[in-house]
Amino acid sequence: MVTTALALGVTVTVLAAMTALGVAHSRTRMLSVEDYISARNSADTGTTAATLIASGMGAWILFSPAEAGAGFGGLAAVGGYAIGSAVPLLLFISVGVRLREYLSQGHSLTEYVYGRYGAWMYGYALLIAVFYMFISLAAGMTAAADALAFVADVPPWITATIIGGFVLVYTGYGGLVASIFTDTVQTLVILPLLTLSFAAVVVGLGGTGAIHQAIASANPHLLDLGFVPGLAFGGYVVIAITGSSVFNQGRWQRVFAAADDASLRRGFAIAAVVTVPMILLAGLLGVSAAGLGLMGDAGPSVALFVAIAAALPDWATLGVVVLVVLLVTSTTDTLFNGIASIVTADLSRVLDDPDERTLQYAARALTVVVAIAAIAVGAQGYSVLELFLLADLLGAATFIPFLHGLYSGRATERGVLLASVAGLLVGLAYFPTFHGALVALPIIGPLLPGGSFIHSFAGAAGVSALLSLLAARLSDGRFDLDSLAAEVHSLDDAAGPVADGGRPTDDGTGSEGVER
């Protein structure tokens, strides 16, 4: 096993390098609050794809797909996970172009929902978005803490604190500009490191032929693409990931950061194509660990690390430590920025003409508070998959009504809100995690069906979609989608640059007179 001191040394070195790169890159580029939270029209196709890959491929990729393969249905479950991870990226090709058409100066998903529906739906969507991002932060911290605890006995609270602290430094300083740049660097390291790590583990376990033969003899159901529990898992994961991704503010930021519509389409498409094989490879190692009988007393959430421990020498696990740190850093900075951008955009509407410095200080302060809470939860060691499923249910019950208003002028706030709440209630009635407590309720409890994730997510999405469409059909109103543009505006003011690293030129002008 790698020593705790060595693992911590590698972790701090990697984080310090990312922090230095993020701060150095943003010193002369992050000029105003607009740059801080949107980096508008700055990312070409390659940069868009890279930042989507890094921000979406967090440390969970080393846990959840392998856990799905080892504990939820083998290849069928892993395939569903891979598809579910790609579908939201493909969905945003259409959604993103439409957002840029109607909200050319947009910053956040809450701006859209407030302008399109009103205050009540805004509050509901804000709750889902912040809750999802908090859970994602906590899950990322949990994944990193679990990984380093397994590899080198690093106490979880130390891992979570170190990662959260370093990421806060460069995201608090450079905002989305720093995040997109470090994402690009991380992608260039993560993809080859993931590929080499997976290949080395397969070779260490005896090669594909030997692995397949051993699993086929001992646990053939793990290789059965028609295995019903695996198909059910894959089905609800597609709905779950798609629903929650719509409320991932990091995705919305990258829609507005893309240089143009073509860069957006190509960038999101490339990210979808790259994501699928990475999920499959991670999941297959979980299948291998379970199929080869390597799990022992270990839980399915650490299946990939069980395979690594069986296949690689101790020194090689240092590469895994680097991989874990890079993966969790890439998603953590995205979520920190996502929270900051929502707060900043919303405060500009709530407060009476706030200046840029007020907006940035408020955004940074809330980001620190959320980061501390996520670090605390991440140190507890909860199941990464269960944390995500809890947040996913809210998104699954709401994303179709939520996006319906972007394509139909007949969707109304009342109809969308009622459809979303009804879908959530149906999902909760089936949701296994809460089922024991719910069936104990008087009167209602005995009437509830059995717990089932596929029924929970399919029911939540299906009921909310049908009710949203029905409510729109019954509506007489027509919302002018072109009016959305009037609801949002640039957050820059005449006060000039506010970033610590912003450097005005000699003419003393605002953002237009700044060196890049």
UniProtKB/TrEMBL annotation:
<dbReference type="InterPro" id="IPR038377">
    <property type="entry name" value="Na/Glc_symporter_sf"/>
</dbReference>
<keyword id="KW-1133">Transmembrane helix</keyword>
<feature type="transmembrane region" description="Helical">
    <location>
        <begin position="415"/>
        <end position="433"/>
    </location>
</feature>
<feature type="transmembrane region" description="Helical">
    <location>
        <begin position="45"/>
        <end position="63"/>
    </location>
</feature>
<keyword id="KW-0812">Transmembrane</keyword>
<dbReference type="Pfam" id="PF00474">
    <property type="entry name" value="SSF"/>
</dbReference>
<feature type="transmembrane region" description="Helical">
    <location>
        <begin position="157"/>
        <end position="181"/>
    </location>
</feature>
<feature type="transmembrane region" description="Helical">
    <location>
        <begin position="385"/>
        <end position="403"/>
    </location>
</feature>
<feature type="region of interest" description="Disordered">
    <location>
        <begin position="494"/>
        <end position="516"/>
    </location>
</feature>
<dbReference type="GO" id="GO:0005886">
    <property type="term" value="C:plasma membrane"/>
</dbReference>
<comment type="similarity">
    <text>Belongs to the sodium:solute symporter (SSF) (TC 2.A.21) family.</text>
</comment>
<feature type="transmembrane region" description="Helical">
    <location>
        <begin position="302"/>
        <end position="328"/>
    </location>
</feature>
<feature type="transmembrane region" description="Helical">
    <location>
        <begin position="361"/>
        <end position="379"/>
    </location>
</feature>
<feature type="transmembrane region" description="Helical">
    <location>
        <begin position="75"/>
        <end position="99"/>
    </location>
</feature>
<protein>
    <submittedName>
        <fullName>Sodium-solute symporter putative</fullName>
    </submittedName>
</protein>
<feature type="transmembrane region" description="Helical">
    <location>
        <begin position="268"/>
        <end position="290"/>
    </location>
</feature>
<dbReference type="InterPro" id="IPR050277">
    <property type="entry name" value="Sodium:Solute_Symporter"/>
</dbReference>
<feature type="transmembrane region" description="Helical">
    <location>
        <begin position="120"/>
        <end position="145"/>
    </location>
</feature>
<feature type="transmembrane region" description="Helical">
    <location>
        <begin position="227"/>
        <end position="247"/>
    </location>
</feature>
<dbReference type="InterPro" id="IPR001734">
    <property type="entry name" value="Na/solute_symporter"/>
</dbReference>
<feature type="transmembrane region" description="Helical">
    <location>
        <begin position="188"/>
        <end position="215"/>
    </location>
</feature>
<feature type="transmembrane region" description="Helical">
    <location>
        <begin position="453"/>
        <end position="472"/>
    </location>
</feature>
<keyword id="KW-0472">Membrane</keyword>
<feature type="transmembrane region" description="Helical">
    <location>
        <begin position="6"/>
        <end position="24"/>
    </location>
</feature>
<dbReference type="GO" id="GO:0015606">
    <property type="term" value="F:spermidine transmembrane transporter activity"/>
</dbReference>
<keyword id="KW-0813">Transport</keyword>
